Amino acid sequence: MSNVFIAFQSNEDSRPLVDAIVADNPEAQVVYSPGLVKIDAPGRLVIKRETIEEQIGRPYDLQQLHINLVTLSGNIDEDDDQFTLSWKH
Amino acid sequence: MDKRVEKNKHTLHDLYAAMTHDLHWETTYQPMDKVFPHDRYEGIKVHDWEKWQDPFRLTSDAYWKFQGEKEKRLYAVVDAFAQNNGQLGVSDGRYVNLLKLFIQAITPNEYYAHRSFAQVGRSLRGDALRIATQMKSADELRHFQNQTHAISNFNKYFNGMHHAPQWFDHAWYLSVSKSFAEDAFSAGPFERLIGLSFGFDDLLTRPLFASLMSAVAHNGDLSAVSVGFTAQSDTSRHMTMGQEAVKFLLQQDAANLTIIQRWIDKWFWRSYRLMTFAAMMQDYMVPKRMMSWKEGWDMFVQKPGEALFAELAQLGLRKPKGWEQACDGKHHISHQAWNAYYGFGHTLAFHTWVPEIAELDWLSQKYPDSFDRWYRPRLEHYAQLHAAGQRLNNQSVPMQCQTCQFPLIFTEQGSGRWTAYRETQHAGETFHFCSDHCEEIFSNEPEKYSQANLASHQILQGQCYNAGVQENTAGFDRQAAVLDFCQIVQGHDNGDFKNSEDALNFENWGAGQDPQEAQL
Q: Is the CB of A71 less than 8 angstroms away from the CB of B210?
């Protein structure tokens, strides 16, 4: 099975995103390099608005992840509540 | 007070449909084919444009809101960096040469991409896709502006940046980049969409804008890394658009497969060649090393690419023809390029140098299968020549590949020894190439590529001198005359880094990081 991944600028804004992803994706692996945080997961990775809101204690618009996004890999699906990366193969 | 304000009642999907597909109308004053005259001639067939959707569901209002937010944050960093004399805090004076090559070779391509995608946005009759391409056009202009703004701070203190647009048009080594941009700009709208958003953005931009930018952060340039990372956030949308376009077109009509495959073969290969500059930057131009080009390739090209093509195989697509050769090239191309540009160092608008011994050791360790055997001995030889007052200065005019316009410096697949060289005839002339793949690109469209402007030919034809300059006169120096024509200032922009004005200034200003203290 191939990995999907998503990478963000490593800053205080993206920290709760990373924490939410780790909470909702048990097989996710987080790697830090200067300025960058990259999260790999086998086959599927989901980011949930509700989990982020629990982390930050205020409402969150999932599209805000564009601000700190750097790159990603996988088929994307987004709605109001979650953002998913996945492969079918 | 804490009453939660209801967001608008439409879901993201509803809003997206309302602000993209639902804006469509069939023209009545003029027929649709007259309003959109350019989206049939490439042979691509589309039956239902509503099947293309942006997975991000990004609408214009959200686009401007988030782009505005990104710009506010970015320029806070760029301005603070300038106000704090951040250029004094980069690792080493040699690093600035990465920025010079960036503004000379990459930044002008951003502007071309902006123009290209404005045209794509006008040409295609699918509304949702048109909106996404218009966003890409605005994004690429943003990248051109961001890079220019950030690097303009360094231009106040260092050479090699002041005439980047003129150098892009005339300097021999930058025609690699210019011919890439013009190849796309003279292609049809679907080819640009697939070639640039998928072939380039989705397959090959990550090592330039993710791993290289992380190395830039490691070298203390907070301004450039912020520009690079925020650019790649936009490119994440572009690669998604390209990926969706490939799937969409393959599902729309079986006739599209052959065309799409050929474009992917071509643009993967042209993009791979262009990324040779990124390879050179990663292995030679970030003095404080982090990750090798080979490691960046594995992480950001090979693995995600294998996954992507395993996925697209379900739609009949195979990997690009040059895939294996490009993956083999990860052991070689950065070294081959640096070796070549070092020898032509007097003809470039940036400095070159032989790496320090500790840096050569790092390269030996990162490239166990190639560096010590093929490349280290050459670099050590150049260092000896330089120490003996005979710094290598290649006076010849290199033969360029007719398609990618690189000098013929690449070796056969699986070999560090044999220079790869191909030729073919067309209309009574012989044309020369660096590889089978560049030769095939030519042979698929010989009328186009036989008309390419090659700097090496122009120089030898005497077209690259200022008015009044005559060959065959006493004291004529062709290299100097061509540099004058290109407006590269000799002794300032070109030559070895050692004893350059930049090097002396950097030291006098007390700039740079202590290598001992700077360890992470």
A: yes
Report how many domains make up chain B: 1
How many inter-chain contacts (A to B, CB under 8 Å) are there?
101
The domain that holds B225 is classified in CATH as 1.10.620.20
Q: What is the 3-state secondary structure (H, E, C) of B332-381?
A: CHHHHHHHHHHHCHHHCCCCECCCCHHHHHHHHHHCCCCHHHHHHHHHHH
Task: Collapse the DSSP code of B67 into the 3-class scheme (helix H, G, I; strand E, B; otherwise coil) and give the result.
Answer: helix
Question: Which run of H or of E encompasses B224?
Answer: helix B222-252
Domain membership of residue B393 as a residue range: 64-508
Nearest-CA neighbor of B259 among B191, B180, B182, B309?
B191
Q: How far is A23 from chain B (nearest CA, A)?
A: 23
Q: Indicate the number of domains in chain A.
A: 1
Q: Which of A9, A73, A75 sits opposite B304 (nearest CB)?
A: A73
Give yes or no for a contact between B437 and B262, defined as CB atoms under 8 angstroms apart.
no
- In this structure, is residue B70 part of a structural domain? yes
The partner residue sitting opposite B214, judged by closest CB among A3, A35, A66, is A35
Record the pTM.
0.96
Structural domain that includes position A66? 3-86
Distance from CA of A65 to the nearest CA of B (A): 9
Q: Residue B2's pLDDT is what?
A: 60
How far is B446 from B444, CA to CA, in rounded Å?
6
Q: How many angstroms separate the CA of residue A34 from the nearest CA in chain B?
A: 5
3-state secondary structure of B185: helix
Region for residue B159 given its phi and psi (left: phi exceeds 0; alpha: psi -120 to 50; beta: otherwise) = beta
Residues of chain A with C-beta less than 8 angstroms from the C-beta of B304: 5, 73
Beta strands in B12-134 (DSSP E): none
Residue for token pair 């880094």:
B497
Domain CATH number, residue A47? 3.90.56.10
Q: Could you tell me the mean pLDDT of each successive run of 10 residues in chain B, 520 residues long?
A: 64 95 95 96 97 96 97 98 97 98 98 97 95 98 98 98 96 96 97 97 94 96 97 97 97 98 98 98 96 97 97 97 98 98 97 97 98 98 98 94 98 95 97 98 98 94 93 91 95 96 96 66
Give residue-wise pLDDT tens across range A16-48. 999 999 999 999 999 999 999 999 999 999 999
**ipTM, interface predicted TM-score of the complex:** 0.96
Q: Are B496 and B353 in contact (CB under 8 A)?
A: yes
Q: Residue B406: inside a domain, yes or no?
A: yes
How confident is the model over A52-75, as a mean pLDDT?
Answer: 97
Whether B155 is covered by a domain: the verdict is yes
Nearest residue in chain B measured CA to CA from A31: B299
Instruction: Assess contact for B250 and B316: CB atoms under 8 A.
Output: yes
- Distance CA(B116)–CA(B97), nearest Å, equals 28
